[in-house]
Design a protein that fits this description.
Layout lengths: L21 E5 L5 E5 L7 E4 L1 H12 L8
InterPro entries: DUF397 (IPR007278)
Protein name: DUF397 domain-containing protein
Organism: Catenulispora pinistramenti
């Protein structure tokens, strides 16, 4: 089970005021957690820092622009 109490969640400054965004938090084990900001009690996904870095690299390179 993921221990998410006490994590400092953050989301992009460009997210809408309606909470339509994902939030990320860094865990003490080095894991990065992601959740839907509209459902903070819902599912939490866990990624390694390497996985997040690969995703951010792809996003910066425009690989996901067709999804927005």
């Amino acid at each position: 089970m993921i221990e998410i109490d006490g994590l400092q969640w953050r989301k992009a400054a460009a997210s809408s005021g309606t909470g339509a965004c994902v939030e990320l938090a860094s865990g003490s084990t080095g894991a990065v957690y992601m959740r839907d900001s509209k459902d903070p009690q819902g599912a939490v996904l866990t990624f390694t820092r390497r996985e997040i870095a690969a995703f951010l690299d792809g996003a910066r390179g425009g690989e996901f622009d067709d999804l927005a």
